[in-house]
Amino acid sequence: MADLLVEQPREITISKTFPAKPKLKPKAKTPSKTPESKYWSSFKSHQISNLISSIPSIDFSPISPHQFAATNSASLTLFSSQTLSPTSTISFSDVVTSCSFRCDGSLIAASDLSGLIRVFDVKTRTPLRRLKSHVRPVRFVKYPLLDKLHLVSGGDDSVVKYWDVAGESVVSDLYGHRDYARCGDCSPINGEIFVTGSYDHTVKLWDVRVDSKESVIEVNHGKPVEDVIFLPSGGMVATAGGNSLKIWDLIGGGKMLYSMESHNKTVTSICVGKESGEEALQYRILSVALDGYMKVFDYAKMKVTHSMRFPAPLMSIGFSPDCMTRVIGSSNGIIFAGRRKGKEDVGESKSGNFWALGSVEEPQRRALRPTYFRYFHRSQGEKPNEGDHLIMRPKKVKLSEHDKLLKKFRHKEALVSVLSGKNPENVVAVMEEMVARRKLLKCVVNLDEEELGLLLGFLHKHSTMPRHSGLLMGLTKKVLEMRADDIRASDALKSHIRNLKRSVEEEIRIQHSLQEIQGIISPLLRIAGRR
């Protein structure tokens, strides 16, 4: 019985010691980028600035390596989509307004202000055909995606023409627009169907098989139409005019599905871009405007998913079929090209010229097994195998001086030590730890005049910082209440209080100014949010 009353020795466990860290973390002011924003931001920008004037039209070749053409002044320039450098230039007698590659990429058609359409061989730049029927400037020319023998064009004479390129003759003159025909696009599912937009605010769908030569469907955009494109399904079109972009359902008889007015100035050009995500290929509408913004519109969710600002009014945009190159033409003759680095680009940058000699395979090492002599002579740099069990060596925690003093429960010395340093984060961390231990106010009472001066100097510098003000302003009030007599008796401490008072008054003045600015901006943001 006596043996049971004897207290048995207990095993003492020493808890781990961690350095003091601040608990008050400032929240991020800017939201993190979405995967879509990261994708569109991955196009590394490159400026091409040796062109003469505005770039009204850009078109990509549908055949790899997808070179692109840009019209500027009286010339048509071809660029490499890999190096973004010019490869050839075709000169005209008048200002070039539009260009379009044929579906096989071997020919390119271009129009100018004289009303002439010319067809060139892309490789040799040889002029093959001259199509002359428009009596006023031609504003757009387009090759159908599924037809190598015909062209569609429209101009300031308000006439849309369907051409037989081989015979240099007009198959159909389509009348219906009452103002300049400025843009057009061909259906991706039928080479005999196309859509045109005009400054008379109308967008017309044409079918050359109709004997009456009248438009099949007509919709009113409400503003002069600057650009129109078919969406990949072929059943919808997107139109741009004024500061709005609208989507129309052709299968539903021309019903408007959505209207987006996110630009502040006239939308000048739109195109379809593809986001090559991990799950599937997703289509987006890219729009540019005179306000210098490029915006990416997800027409499945009906919202703008990304925007980018450029330092000049934008006139045209193109996106390569392989999703690797984005090109934007501006009004001052600068092309803002962007190329996304792919796996092939990374391989070429790492291997240099070895790709010209073919792929070089690395020699495979024999598998390491316990029966091999090399297994028992592995160094620390040996990488573990997939099935190995790893035993990690615990990292030694390095404690600073104030952490060592806190570990020994010498709170006042820890506070003085950290106040002597230059890191406000550590000071706040030590104060939060002492608040948790209920020792902070007791330490403030026991500080001598010099140590109290250190504390007041720290409060003067950092008490108005937003990330620490919640703790430090409350501590400042307690210090003034508890040490009022000592402060009155010392001129040095009075100087610290005067500095602290000035910093608090300055912070209050700044907050009042910010509230006035917020009152001015809030109504503007509400108006912008409705648009």
Class from helix and strand fractions: alpha+beta
Strand order of the largest sheet: 1-28-27-26
Give the mean pLDDT: 84
Major beta sheet, specifics? 4 strands, antiparallel
Radius of gyration: 36 Å
Helix content bin = 10-25%
Beta strand count: 28
Low-confidence stretches: 1-14, 346-362
Question: How far do the termini sit from each other?
Answer: 88 Å
The coarse silhouette is: elongated
Beta-strand percent range: 25-35%
Walkthrough of the structure:
With about 525 residues, the chain is of the alpha+beta class. Helix content is about 25%, strand content about 30%. The protein has helices at about 1-5, 35-40, 345-350, 400-405, 410-420, 425-435, 440-445, 450-460, 470-480, 485-490, 490-530; strands at about 45-50, 55-60, 70, 75-80, 85-90, 95-100, 105-110, 115-120, 125-130, 140, 150-155, 160-165, 170-175, 180-185, 195-200, 200-205, 215-220, 225-230, 235-240, 245-250, 255-260, 265-275, 280-290, 295-300, 305-310, 315-320, 325-330, 335-340. The strands form seven sheets. It has a four-stranded antiparallel beta sheet. Strands 2-3-4-5 form a four-stranded antiparallel beta sheet, with no helix packed on it. A four-stranded antiparallel beta sheet has the order 6-7-8-9, with no helix packed on it. α4 runs antiparallel to α5 and α8 runs parallel beside α11. The longest helix is centred in the last third of the chain and has 40 residues, at about 490-530. The protein is elongated and about 100 Å long. Mean pLDDT is about 85; it is low at about 1-15 and about 345-360. One of its GO terms (biological process) is rRNA processing. It is found in: Nucleus, Nucleolus. This is U3 small nucleolar RNA-associated protein 15 homolog isoform X1. Pfam families: UTP15_C (PF09384), WD40 (PF00400).
